[in-house]
Amino acid sequence: MSNSSTTLQLRQQQMMAALLTGNPAITDHITGDHNLNAQQRLSIYQSGYRLRLREVIDNDHPVLGSYLGDDLFEQMVDGYIAAIPSKFRSLRHYCDPLPDYLQRDDFFSQHPHIAELARFERCLLSSFDAPDRDTASVETLQQIAAEKWPQMTLRFHPSLQLFTSDTNAVEIWQALKAEQAPPEPLQRLTCWVAWRNRERLTEFRSVDSLERTLLSGFLEGDNFSSAAELTAALVSEESAANELLTVLLHWLQLGWISQLSVQREQPDLQLT
Questions:
Q1: What 3-state DSSP class applies to 166?
Q2: Residues of the signal sequence (predicted)?
């Protein structure tokens, strides 16, 4: 590597250090004039960097910002930017660690619904930004012979997100989004599904214990036979088949499923 390339790389590293940690080493290599000295010129970049990151947090988490109010929002922003420097080429992912940061922070961790509120907004963003993929239909299911259903597995649309919370964070989000007073924070297990519908709009709805169990199982690779056993354990065996079919048809109608496939049966081993 030539000396000029080495020098350029060093200056780039020094500039990043100035932006991320405030290290002033790059100041000796900035030319000032009668209007602005070197430190003033550097501070423009440092302020611009922080303002851009603040803008990203504000745009990604408008409801969280509304809930916190100006002072607490600034406290969160200052702490997050100091603790989590940007490491992504795209700022779209800069706030991905925000819920974990809020869970660890000495102040915000005292209010777990705040981290859950941030995590729910990340969930909605992930659904909206997910890649496109065709969805299966009821007709797709009808094309699979009934005797092959026990080996059938599901692949969900990439936008589908299963959100489980220990608080009423989603109800708080809904109230704020509707410009209403949010309810008091509560510790309560809730489960929601977010997805992007066929009109490319993000939706979400709550799911009961049966749907949550089935979704978790299918996401882990369960087939229809295993899902039937899970259903029978939660409802009566007599109604399990109808319950499972009703859930599956509803998921197909909502566009949650991108593919139905049948696992090949493994041949029995022959010992000779």
A1: strand
A2: none
Beta strand segments in 63-109, E: none
> What pTM, to 2 d.p., does this model score?
0.82
Report, in angstroms and rounded to the nearest whole number, the Rg of the chain calculated over CA atoms. 26
Q: What is the DSSP letter of 150?
A: G
- Is the predicted pLDDT of residue 217 greater than 80, yes or no? yes
Q: In a 3-state reduction of DSSP, which class is residue 253? A: helix
User: How far from the centroid of its chain's Cα atoms is residue 225's Cα?
Assistant: 30
For residues 29 and 11, give the distance between their C-alpha atoms in angstroms, rounded to a whole number.
8
DSSP character for 199?
A: T
* Number of alpha carbons in the 13 Å side-chain half-sphere of residue 243: 20
List, for residues 174-206, the tens digit of each pLDDT value: 999 999 999 999 999 999 999 999 999 999 999
CA atoms within 13 A on the CB side of 49: 18
Collect all residues with Cβ–Cβ distance below 8 Å to 18 and sequence separation of at least 6: 24, 25, 26, 27, 42, 45, 46
Q: Which residues contact 85 (CB under 8 A, 6 or more apart)?
A: 20
State how far Cα 239 lies from the chain centre.
35
The pLDDT of residue 2 is above 80: no
